Known about the structure:
Blueprint: H1 2-31, H2 38-43, E1 49-57, E2 60-63, E3 67-69, E4 78-80, E5 83-84, E6 91-94, H3 100-111, E7 132-134, E8 141-162, E9 168-187, H4 196-205
Antiparallel strand pairs: 1-8, 2-5, 2-8, 3-8, 4-7, 6-9, 8-9
Protein name: Lipoprotein
Keywords: Signal
Organism: Streptomyces griseorubiginosus
Amino acid sequence: MASLAVLSGLATLVAGCAASQDAKSTTSASATPKAENPVRAWTCAETTFHWGRLSESTPLVAASQVVRVTSGSHLGLTTYAAIPVRHVTASVESSGKLDAHAVLASLRAKMGRSDLAEAGKTLPIPGKEGLFSTDPGNTKGDFVGYLGVHVVTADFAYGCVSNKTGKSVPAYGTVTTWYRPIQGEFKCGIDMKLNDAAREANSLLCGEKASQGE
């Protein structure tokens, strides 16, 4: 009986030691502070914009019908109609609430351009007046008038803003804006250096049967 009592006491002692060790481990784990997020620490270091990838393009915005000049004909002053291909509108997308004007002001400073369009501004496309009027002369061929624009897309991270729970977190986002429209005309089939907007119009229209534009 004495032996049973001794064994029982030893079992209780071992169990107590194990429980004590588990408690210490739990306390130690909970007491270890979580490492600070390095990205948050960097972006929240100061209230400023950090700009990442920035790209520029010159897409086609509008184009005319193909104007055909046949041998011996002279059309005289011809207006190139403006048929919309796409609408380009400046915008700011952000994970947090930010002043779009401030975002674009920072991008203007980074690029050294004061003519970047404000958020919400859409590039106007000419109406009945057309893109422009010109005299193709008597040069035989198919001609196209086009309108393009310089488009800028840039990603950013901004300091820290308060989210819905009141916690201070960095804001990430993307800006799409535009500046300085470009327009002109070209002759289909001419091997010459064209800008991206003109090349897009050439690919879109010059492979089709040309017809007299309005």
